[in-house]
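Bug #2210: token dump truncated for DNA-binding SARP family transcriptional activator/LysM repeat protein?
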Amino acid sequence: MTTAPRNRGTEILRGLGALLLFGVLLIGFPIGLHTVAGSPVPDRLPTWDELTATLMSPDTDQHLFLGAVRLLGWTAWLAFVLATCIETIGHLAGRPTPSLPRPARPLQLLVRDMVATATLVFSATAALTTSASAAHTITAAAPQASTTEGVEQTADASVVNGRKPLVGNAAPMGERPDAPGRETYTVQQDDTLWGIADDTYGSGHLYPEIFKASRPLDQPPGIPALTDPEKLYPGQRLRLPEIQTDAKATEEPNRSTLPEPADTPNTPRPSQERDSSGTPPTSTEPTGHSTTAPSSPVPRHAEPSPDRPSTPTPRPAHETDDSFAITLRSGSYIGFGLATALSIALAATRLHRRRRHAAPGSSDPTAVPAPDPATSKPVAEARKAHLDTYADRDVPIPSDAELVAQDIATPVPEHITLGTRAGRPVILPLAGLSLGLAGDAAPATARAVATELLAKSHRDRVELLIPRPDAEELYPTSDITAHTPPGLTITPTLNAALTHLETEILRRARLLETTDQPDLTSLRATDPAEPLPVLLLIGSVTEQAAPTLQAILGLGRRYGIGALILGPWPTGTTVHLNTDATVHHAIGTNAGTLTGARLFNLTTADADAMLQTLHTATGADPAAPPSQTNDTHTAAATPEPASRPEPDFVPPPRPTSEERPRPARLQVLGPVTLYTADGPVTTGLRRSARDLLAYLALHPNGITRDQGVGALWPDHNPDTATTQFNTAISNIRKVLRTATDLREPMFVLHTTGRYRLDPHLIDVDLWNLTTILNTAKHAITDTDRITALTPVADLYTADFADNLTHDWAEAHREYLRRTATDALTHLAQFQRDDHPDRALATLEQAIHLDPYAEPLYRTIMQLQLDLGHPDAAHRTYRLLTTRLADLDTEPNDQTHQLLNELQHRRAN
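Reproduced locally. Full output below:
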């Protein structure tokens, strides 16, 4: 999508026309009216008799008419002057203006458009007349940074602790406006509960205490009540309660105030080995995440502490130095916001893949489903990091459908997390963002920001504007300019992007006035169907375009517009980055927030792999990996072949009825759980041992130590991983011996260099299911196949190991689900001729396992039509339409054609 640039001369003429019209109406009109009708101030007040005589006598000399014209003319002019003052002040302040009475509303709308046009287009004149001074300012930015390195500067001397006091609520320089001891505090512009708690108590984690204490407060007239900790309005009153804090309290959050994990899927927690009762073990095994104390979910308005940390160094993913970011094996440093968005995109990709999965044909009822394409390494790492935030807190891991449902309810992003500082996120608002990136890591940081916003852009949440030259610089190895992903508009030039922003400001200003809404958030709530995404310009800015962009960003906060500049940006904030994207120096309003932070950054190879996932998440067929420029990129971006069980996989034989029951049972369909005769094993089993049990269940013929290490601890060094493996085996044996009261058995056999579960002591539900599927595969007659496939619905009780986040577990989970669904579909085919009602019930069971498989719905609809139930078939179509709406799509042409046939039969 591109936008053609408009002529700047036309913009200048429009601005001059608006200014000329203002001059005529404000100056020329009263002069003409005074000439024609006289002064609005009478020489003397008429008496009642004179007034009565004038109204009762004929107006032969037009005196009464001229008096009426004079009165109406001066009244209209005064109304125009009042509207001009109100709209000009509101426009310059970037705030909503009060609405005049209804008779004056059309005049107010006219004045509002005139003020917006004159202000916006006047910037075009400034771009042509002040290029020399702009060039001097931009070129002088780099020398200034070198001479003032290490010194924090602010754009306004009245800013105290990163906050600018409101008029009438300003504090003396050096004194915190919300210092301890003040009972109440008046909210200022850009305040957040996190920042207020951090300044008042030294810990932002205590923001819920302020929220609880302040909710009952009566607010001043016209100020909204405090109902949401993430939404503060200037002028609101807060109560700052007395809180006893100590060092431990400020370092570790009050866990009773943390929201449930389901409400904050992108909030990570540290990973520790735990037994099934939740008790940490006594040994100190290396874990998959940092063991630093987690922070509470940060409000979107949160500001990190100004304490400057030491410059961080890149670390492997399992040694990340904070709880809000991960370092991929490729060296990319990304936040959990991007990891969550990629996890949701991968979930949508799988659901679309299920939707397209064709029902198996009767010609080959024993066909083995092909494996799904493997997930690229950076996306798989990001998804695992996201899902681990649930597993680390012993919370059920959401399914793909649940992740997509969470995404549907996600609002338009108001803020962006740019990186971390002292283990805490660095957050800035998107609306009004005015940030320049300078240094070698600037493209990598801009690439990370752009990729995260593109991952969140669907459903009209975000729109990125990137000029073509900058897009080719950010994604040099991708075909992004030829296949533009949703949410991205690539303009031919920077001027085209600026014109797009100007047009959008005018459109949004008219929408706000037409709907009588104070801001975009209210407008989105009033009319959710109106696309009002956050607009972010990413690109380099020329000297001539700098004044125009500055004027646009002045209105950006109100209209949801921001800019991320590739290069110095003296009119906003400029950060200078080291090679690892650490901010070693910053100048501007947010300098204190950004100095010392490590910003997110993304390699081109990882970005290409992520864009491919975002492409398939829309329902598009997977395309070939983009061409790379060197072998390193190819290795990082090309996914490895997917793995699945061998077609001839045969589990150990099941015991006959005469044999004694096995002392232990392993459930891997659903949460991985060990059972004995006394019930589930709830204590002692470590998480690593649980994961190893599931991996051993997938390989009844055994695995080598290297296989187990590579599957469960791919990020650990070999010595540490080997210790982990040995400890897990020891833990399995110890727990099973204790639970079964059997001291001699090994339970996990080790022969010829391979480890495997002892089939004579441990029964595995997956093996029972696989035995049934193998029996059906080798059956000769349809009767034998029906007999073999009938127990599938009872044996496949849940997805494979749904509490594991490993890539191999997810791959086999998809494979096994598809295998079970196809088995039920085969069974329905065999039942269809003799028992159509049973076939219909079997297909409904298959739909329960795979609620997005569109071919299954068509099969059910056709069977319902054959049975003479067109109404039931129509309900099935509506159910399919509802479920596909979760994927932002609708039934395909083949299904719609079947619906037309259904409607034709109903009509006859």
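Output looks complete on our side. The first strand starts at residue 184 and ends at 186. Marking as cannot-reproduce; reopen if the truncation happens again.
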